[in-house]
Each structure stands twice: as structure tokens, then as C-alpha cells.
């Protein structure tokens, strides 16, 4: 989770007039699942507040790869389309010391929210053993970041693929990591509001208030690499 990226205000106009890119990834597959990553391009994704994905994000060997050593083209990427009531599946792996995340319900309005995390809740992606956040309660891999910890630790070692499912329907949220349900909660009720009020998001009035938004993959700003693949979604 990062709390420092700034989106230039000059990009607001670009964001406001961008239309979703039509790609083969938008074609529905069996069972209503839609591929969000076609395996060969970054079509369907763009850096938050911009018109396309930055150069640090590469389609590499059927993965969506953030190259941590890149000195340009950085930033969180988001889907061109927005989603409400969905089932999201993907896989991720990290380099030693990596911090990243998967956010949802991201409202893209850089004139009001400079960063994805100001609106979008996050499933933490992390090397628990090699990054300082691994020692912080509710900041470990699979946690609903800074809100709810995993019921049990199921994350795989650095370099191995982790399977994720994020399911949200009518406020019922469930995280599954490597086949185990690790977080379950109800969003937008009194208990949720109290939980947010006790978190680092308390001073972000737009956080988790939107019931529809973009999916985002996080660039935490470090020098470590992170890979995502088999990214797909189904509307519920």
C-alpha cells in the first residue's frame, strides 16, 4: 500500500474523455467469465488518470509484469471498464521484498482523488518475510489492507504463484487466497463504517464509498517486480 503517489492535474482532461478500448479481452468466455488481460498486450488497462498503461507495465510471457527497475511509466493501472457485483480471479507472484495490491471500486476522478487508494479497498499483495509491512497487523498478504486480517496465512513463498478470488455482491465481500476463504465482511453497514473510521482511511472521505468502479493493480513505487496473470471477471 502506498500513500504518496501524485497524479498530475494536467491529466484530468485526458481521463475525462477516454473511452474504453475495445479488445479481444472484452469477449465473454464460457460461464460468463471475461478476460481482463489478453496475455500479449496491456489493452484494456491504463495508468490511473492517463490514457494508456505506462511503460513500466509490460505484457511478458503471458503475464502482466511491473518492472520495478523502471524509472519512467510508473503508477497504478486500472481497468478501462468499471464493475459492480463481480467475481474477480487472478494469480500473482512477487520478487523478494515486493509490496503491491489489488484494489476494486476505484473511482477515477484525479481532480478529486489523486490516488487509487483514496477510493478503492485493497487486497494486499506482499512478500511477508521480506517487506516491513509483513510485521504489521492487517498489512500482510491476503489481508483487506488496514481493515481485516486473514483468518489464516496461506500465501506461497516468493517466486511462486498465488491464486486469488475477490467476490463482491450487494456489499458481501469475500477474499480467497490459494483456495482458502481468508476474509469475509459486509461493506457499507454500521460495523463497516466504524472499522473504516478506526483505520488510516478515516481522513479519506471517498474511501470505499463507491459501489461501482475500476479494478486496479498497484505500483507501490519500489524496485521490486510483481507479475499478474489469468486475470478474469464475471458480473454477478
Report mean pLDDT, rounded to a whole number: 91
The CATH superfamily is known as: Exo-inulinase, domain 1
Number of helices: 2
- The helix fraction, in percent, is under 10%
The secondary structure category is: mainly beta
Determine Rg (CA atoms, Å). Answer: 16 Å
Unreliable segments (pLDDT under 50, ≥5 consecutive)? 3-27
Strand fraction equals: 25-35%
Order of helices and strands: HEEEEEEEEEEEHEE
How far the N terminus sits from the C terminus, by CA atoms, comes to 28 Å
CATH class: Mainly Beta
Report on the biggest sheet. 8 strands, antiparallel
State the shape: globular
CATH architecture: Sandwich
Number of domains: 1
CATH topology: Jelly Rolls
By DSSP, the count of extended strands is 13
List keywords for this structure.
single chain; 236 residues; 8-stranded antiparallel sheet; 5-stranded antiparallel sheet
Can you characterise this structure?
- With 236 residues, the protein is mainly beta.
- The protein has a single domain (9-235), classed as Jelly Rolls.
- Helices cover 6% and strands 31% of the residues.
- It has 2 helices and 13 strands; from the N terminus they run H-E-E-E-E-E-E-E-E-E-E-E-H-E-E.
- It has helices at 12-16, 190-197; strands at residues 34-35, 45-47, 57-60, 63-66, 77-79, 86-94, 99-106, 122-126, 162-169, 172-177, 180-186, 214-217, 226-235.
- Strands 1, 3, 4, 6, 9, 10, 11 and 13 form an 8-stranded antiparallel β-sheet that branches. A 5-stranded antiparallel β-sheet has the order 2-5-12-7-8, with no helix packed on it.
- It is globular, with a radius of gyration of 16 Å.
Amino acid at each position: 500500500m502506498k500513500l504518496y503517489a501524485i497524479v498530475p492535474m494536467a491529466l484530468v482532461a485526458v481521463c475525462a474523455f477516454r473511452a474504453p478500448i475495445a479488445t479481444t479481452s472484452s469477449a465473454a468466455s464460457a460461464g460468463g467469465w471475461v478476460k481482463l488481460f489478453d496475455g500479449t498486450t496491456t489493452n484494456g488497462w491504463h495508468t490511473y488518470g492517463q490514457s494508456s498503461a505506462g511503460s513500466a507495465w509490460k505484457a511478458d510471457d503471458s503475464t502482466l509484469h511491473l518492472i520495478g527497475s523502471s524509472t519512467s511509466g510508473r503508477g497504478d493501472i486500472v481497468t478501462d471498464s468499471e464493475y459492480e457485483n463481480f467475481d474477480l480471479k487472478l494469480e500473482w507472484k512477487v520478487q523478494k521484498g515486493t509490496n503491491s495490491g489489488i484494489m476494486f471500486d476505484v473511482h477515477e476522478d484525479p481532480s478529486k482523488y489523486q490516488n487509487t487508494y483514496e477510493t478503492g479497498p485493497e487486497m494486499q499483495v506482499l512478500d511477508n518475510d521480506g517487506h516491513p509491512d509483513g510485521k504489521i497487523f492487517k498489512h500482510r498478504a491476503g489481508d483487506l489492507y488496514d481493515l481485516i486480517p486473514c483468518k489464516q496465512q496461506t500465501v506461497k513463498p516468493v517466486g511462486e504463484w498465488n491464486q486469488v478470488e475477490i467476490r463482491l455482491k450487494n456489499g458481501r465481500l469475500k477474499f480467497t487466497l490459494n483456495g482458502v476463504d481468508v476474509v469475509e465482511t459486509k461493506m457499507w453497514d454500521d460495523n463497516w463504517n466504524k472499522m473504516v473510521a478506526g483505520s488510516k482511511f478515516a481522513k479519506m472521505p471517498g474511501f470505499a464509498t463507491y459501489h461501482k468502479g475500476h479494478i486496479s493493480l498497484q505500483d507501490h513505487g519500489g524496485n521490486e517486480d510483481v507479475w499478474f496473470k489469468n486475470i478474469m471477471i464475471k458480473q454477478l
